[in-house]
Every structure is written in C-alpha cells, then in structure tokens.
C-alpha cells in the first residue's frame, strides 16, 4: 500500500515537470511592480532606458604622439658628416692652390715675354746703329780711334778742374767719332733723338744747344773768313812793299 502511494506521487511529479517543460512561459521585459521583489544578479547592469539623456561630447585627453613608422629603404635626412666637411675644405684648398699656380705661371710668362722683347729691341737697335756695307765704314778701327781720342782728352785735363775733366774727353771722343765714323754717329744721333722726343724738356734743351752750336760754328766760320781775308790782305800788302823795295834797288 505504501509502495503504491509512493509510485503515484512520483508519477504525478514527473507529469508536472513534463507539463512545465512543454508549456511555453511568457517572459516580460519588465515585470509587474512588486513590493518585495527578489534582486536578480543582472540588476547591476546599466540597461538602456526608453528616453536616454543627451550625452555630453567626450573630452579628448592629450595623448602622446604616435611614432611614424620609418621605412628603412628611404634615405634618412642627416647633416654633413666630418668627412663631407673635410672634403669641402680640401676642395677649397685645391682651388686656391690652382689659382696661385695659374697666377704664377701668367706672371712668369709675362716676364719671359718682356725679356724676349727687350732682347729683340736691343739687337735691333744695335743692328740699326751699324753702318751699311755700301758706306764702306768699318767699326773696329774707328771705335779704337774714338777711344784713343777720349783718353788723350782725359790725359790733357788730368790736372784741370772737374768741369774740364768731364767735358773735354767727351768732346774729343764725339769729335773723333764724327770724323772717323760719320754714318755710325748719324745713326746714333737719330736714335738718341727718338728717345729725347719722349721727354719734351730734354728735347728742347737739345734743340737750344744745337742752335747755340750752329750759331757758334757760323760765327767762328765768319771770323775765320775775316781772319783769312785780313791775313791775305796783310800778306799782299807786305809782298807789294817788298816788291817795291826790290824795284827801287834795281
């Protein structure tokens, strides 16, 4: 009897559990308000309400700059290295050395050109002073005669004053030159006159001295002619007197 009652209760309980499992239950989002509701474990979650309050704009907090990824294939910008600076300085030194060498070379070329020009001028001047072959004038014996005449003038005036010792040998040498080397002295005079024309004061002094010499020469020539005429007259008179005495003696 007791086993039968126990089996009936177990069957009823099984049927009740099966009916609860098969019967769908309605689940409300919000249950009816109850005064004494048991708190669920999901009450701590903040569920969205029907009318949400306006949200304030989020306050952006300053954040650290995000490092930009660097591509190792691209060249990185960097300043000049010590090697680059040294190369620049070496380049400047080489350019300065090249300019100095070029300037020295130009100066040397100019000096050599001036020396060659001076040599050519000297040789051409000597060639222009020499007498031509058609003149028949020879330099060697004539130059020796001029030198002997100058030395003779120096010997004659060795005990005289300094003015005579300076002018007499020169005058005797120039006179001997015009006597034995007239063509050469003419060439020397013409060449000297070209240089004198570059200095007007010297050229004027030369012209004045030449005029004085010409006047002195003409004056001396006139006096020479007058003296010769006077001597001729006196000689003629003396001869006539002698001839008259001779005639009277006969």
UniProtKB/TrEMBL annotation:
Matching entries from InterPro entries are given as: MIC26/MIC27, Mic26_fungi
Q: Which GO terms describe its cellular component?
A: MICOS complex; mitochondrial crista junction
Q: Where is this region: Disordered?
A: 28-83
Where can this protein be found?
Answer: Mitochondrion inner membrane
Gene Ontology BP annotations: cristae formation
Sequence ranges of Pro residues compositional bias: 54-68
Q: Where would you say this protein principally sits, based on its record?
A: mitochondrion
The source's superkingdom equals Eukaryota
Q: Which residues form the signal peptide?
A: 1-29
Keyword field: Membrane, Mitochondrion, Mitochondrion inner membrane, Signal
Q: Which PANTHER family match?
A: MICOS SUBUNIT MIC26 (PTHR28268)
Q: How does it assemble?
A: Component of the mitochondrial contact site and cristae organizing system (MICOS) complex.
The protein's role, per its UniProt record: Component of the MICOS complex, a large protein complex of the mitochondrial inner membrane that plays crucial roles in the maintenance of crista junctions, inner membrane architecture, and formation of contact sites to the outer membrane.
Name the UniProt record assigns to this protein: MICOS complex subunit
- What is the species listed in this Swiss-Prot or TrEMBL entry? Emericellopsis cladophorae
Lineage of the species this protein comes from: Eukaryota, Fungi, Dikarya, Ascomycota, Pezizomycotina
């Amino acid at each position: 009897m007791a086993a039968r009652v126990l089996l009936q209760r177990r069957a009823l309980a099984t049927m009740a559990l099966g009916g609860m499992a098969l019967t769908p239950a309605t689940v409300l989002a919000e249950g009816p308000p109850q005064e004494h509701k048991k708190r669920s474990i999901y009450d701590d979650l903040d569920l969205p309400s029907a009318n949400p309050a306006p949200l304030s704009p989020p306050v952006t907090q300053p954040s650290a700059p995000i490092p930009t990824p660097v591509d190792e294939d691209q060249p990185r910008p960097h300043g000049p290295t010590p090697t680059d600076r040294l190369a620049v300085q070496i380049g400047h030194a080489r350019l300065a050395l090249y300019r100095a060498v070029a300037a020295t070379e130009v100066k040397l070329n100019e000096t050599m050109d001036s020396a060659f020009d001076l040599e050519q001028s000297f040789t051409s001047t000597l060639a222009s002073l020499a007498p031509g072959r058609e003149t028949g004038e020879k330099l060697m014996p004539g130059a020796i005669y001029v030198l002997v005449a100058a030395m003779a003038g120096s010997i004659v005036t060795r005990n005289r004053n300094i003015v005579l010792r300076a002018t007499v040998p020169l005058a005797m040498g120039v006179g001997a030159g015009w006597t034995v080397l007239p063509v050469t002295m003419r060439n020397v005079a013409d060449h000297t006159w070209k240089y004198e024309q570059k200095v007007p004061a010297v050229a004027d002094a030369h012209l004045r001295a030449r005029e004085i010499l010409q006047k002195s020469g003409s004056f001396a020539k006139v006096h020479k002619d007058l003296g010769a005429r006077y001597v001729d007259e006196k000689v003629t008179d003396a001869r006539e007197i002698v001839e008259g005495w001779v005639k009277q003696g006969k």
